[in-house]
Amino acid sequence: MKEGLPVNNDQDYRNAWNKALRWLAYRQRSKNEMRDYLLRKGFGADTSTNVIRKLEEIGLLDDKEFARLWVEYSYRKLKGSLKIRWELKEKGIDEEIIRDSLKEGLPSEYERASSLMDKYLPPDYQQNDKNLLRKTVSFLKRRGYPNDAIYKIVNNFFK
Question: Which of 24, 25, 75 is nearest to 52 (CA)?
Answer without folding.
Answer: 24
